[in-house]
Design brief:
This protein is α/β, with parallel strands linked by helices and 334 residues long. It has 2 domains: 189 residues, Quinone Oxidoreductase, Chain A, domain 1 (Alpha-Beta Complex); 137 residues, Alpha-Beta Complex (Quinone Oxidoreductase, Chain A, domain 1), CATH 3.90.180.10. It has 11 helices and 16 strands. The strands form 3 sheets. Strands 3, 5, 6, 7, 8, 15 and 16 form a 7-stranded mixed beta sheet that branches. A 6-stranded parallel beta sheet has the order 11-10-9-12-13-14, sandwiched between helices.
């Protein structure tokens, strides 16, 4: 089959379209999926540049997110039949015989969900990692509810634009940071109540004006760096901050967070896969199943900004690394 291989750690030029062996079902509960599309995520570019989580592997197929059609099943598979259309977040971290920048993938059935009928394959393929990250951050970490006001950074980004919609489904009031007026229009359409153009206005000051000096109940950091520490100033005393990046304490210390008695949560949706936590992986599948219902009920949407053919995966990586991508990017696999 055709696949894009990462031959070594480096810039986007280390990605090569090549022929590799078709992956094989090796356990009775695995399924073989003919991939129609794969999502591109920032974690893909980080793995490519830094090296995989499995350094003993000489080369790797990247891509955690995928969508396609089931074309083979193990003898004990009960959840799927050949012909089913599915989507999932599995593989792509460097483990041999995994990854979705390819024509086929083998996945454990418990980590796969039926594709939302209302989404195209590219739309479905770029949804799972963002959905799980936003859900675990806002629903599992802080139990967001209708009494809360939440600040979501990067509201027009891949995770951010999903987080806005999940927060709206819980009835929360939503402030979000965006870089320009076009992104402001998008986040308003998705349900944001208070867009903040951070290049024109300090978001901490904007939040304090909005909340009469109290601060928001929840801050969701998808940007990292100094933004994380500034967010601590915008969250109320005894409030919550969730970040999907590791705080860089060489930039600043946590004194503000400590003085405000903030609860800080670190979100990494890859932990279950990296540690083989089977129940946690099944929980993530449940998230995708519920989100599929919401997609089909028109309560959720995915903003697919751009697609590339499989052979141009390197170009997709280059665009993500240039920054400020609106929504998501997907690879089309023929």
């Amino acid at each position: 089959m055709k696949a894009v291989l990462m031959t070594k750690a480096g810039d986007f030029n280390v990605l090569r379209l090549t022929e590799v062996a078709l992956p094989q079902i090796t356990t009775p509960t695995e399924i073989l999926v003919e991939l129609k599309a794969a999502g591109i995520n920032p974690i893909d570019t980080k793995i490519r540049s830094r090296g995989t989580f499995y350094p003993e592997s000489f080369s790797a197929i990247l891509g955690c997110d995928g969508a396609g059609v089931v074309v083979g099943i193990g003898k004990e598979v009960t959840r799927f039949s050949c012909g089913d259309e599915v989507y999932f977040c599995a593989g792509g971290l460097g483990k041999p015989n995994t990854g979705n920048y390819a024509q086929y993938a083998v996945i454990e059935q418990d980590y796969v969900a039926m594709k939302p009928k209302s989404l195209s394959f590219p739309e479905a393929a770029c949804a799972p990692l963002a959905l799980i990250t936003a859900w675990e951050s806002l629903y599992d970490r802080v139990k967001l509810n209708s009494e809360d006001t939440v600040l979501i950074h990067g509201g027009a980004g891949g995770v951010g634009h999903v987080a806005i919609q999940l927060a709206k489904l819980r009835g929360a009031k939503i402030a979000t940071t965006v870089s320009n007026s076009d992104k402001e229009k998008l986040v308003r359409k998705l349900g944001a109540d208070y867009p903040i153009l951070y290049k024109q206005q300090n978001f901490v000051s904007a939040i304090m004006d909005l909340t009469q000096g109290k601060g928001v109940d929840v801050g969701f950091d998808t940007v990292g760096g100094k933004t994380f520490f500034d967010t601590c100033q915008a969250v109320k005393v005894y409030g919550d901050v969730v970040t999907i990046l590791e705080p860089d304490c060489s930039i600043e210390n946590l004194k503000t967070a400590r003085n405000r008695n903030l609860r800080i949560s670190l979100e990494l949706m890859l932990t279950p896969a990296l540690m083989n936590l089977k129940e946690a992986l099944k929980h993530q599948t449940k998230i995708l199943e519920q989100c599929a219902l919401w997609f089909d009920a028109r309560k959720l949407t995915i903003h697919l900004e751009q697609t590339f053919p499989l052979a141009e995966a390197s170009m997709a990586h280059k665009i993500i690394e240039n920054g400020s991508v609106t929504g998501k990017i997907a690879l089309i696999i023929s």
